[in-house]
Amino acid sequence: MKLAEALAQRADATRHVEQLRARTVASARFQEGEEPAENAAELLGDADAVLDDLESLIRRINRTNASARMVGGGTLTDALARRDVLRLRHAVVTAAADAAAGRDQRGMGRQLRSELRMLSALPVAELRAKADVLAREIRETDVAIQRTNWEVDLLD
Q1: Above 90 in pLDDT, residue 25?
Q2: What interhelical angle do 40-67 and 3-27 show, nearest 10?
Q3: 122: containing domain
Q4: Which of 45, 58, 68 is nearest to 12 (CA)?
Q5: pTM for the predicted model, two decimal places
Q6: Do both 99 and 150 map to the same domain?
Q7: Are residues 76 and 41 part of one domain?
Q8: Which residues contact 63 (CB under 8 A, 6 or more apart)?
Q9: Looking at residue 43, what DSSP letter applies?
């Protein structure tokens, strides 16, 4: 099985656990004289089985990520960390540019010439250009990760 297939299975298992959780909660209490829609104890057992399988799958994915080598060097885990930090960096730079441009200050514009003007403490155009570069790096990193996911076999 390829790593990408295991990642899809992990997503499916996570959704299934969430559905089982919601169904268990909905069936955990019922009115006297009525029957619950489903057996909450059976649903809990089903959730436990899915979670056991999910834990095993996540362990295999993590082992694979730690050992899989990327084309440009480093492991898949390194690339995932890089992508996560690039996303955070992009969010910070974008938020700073938005704040410097006054995007979040509705109704804060000057009404009269005698009112104080708001000035930008940061170079908005430079921040926007940096955000564009970061967005490109995120896309390129993500493509490399996806390519590796489809090339690498899942470890036992």
Answers
A1: yes
A2: 160
A3: 72-106+114-156
A4: 58
A5: 0.81
A6: yes
A7: no
A8: 155
A9: H
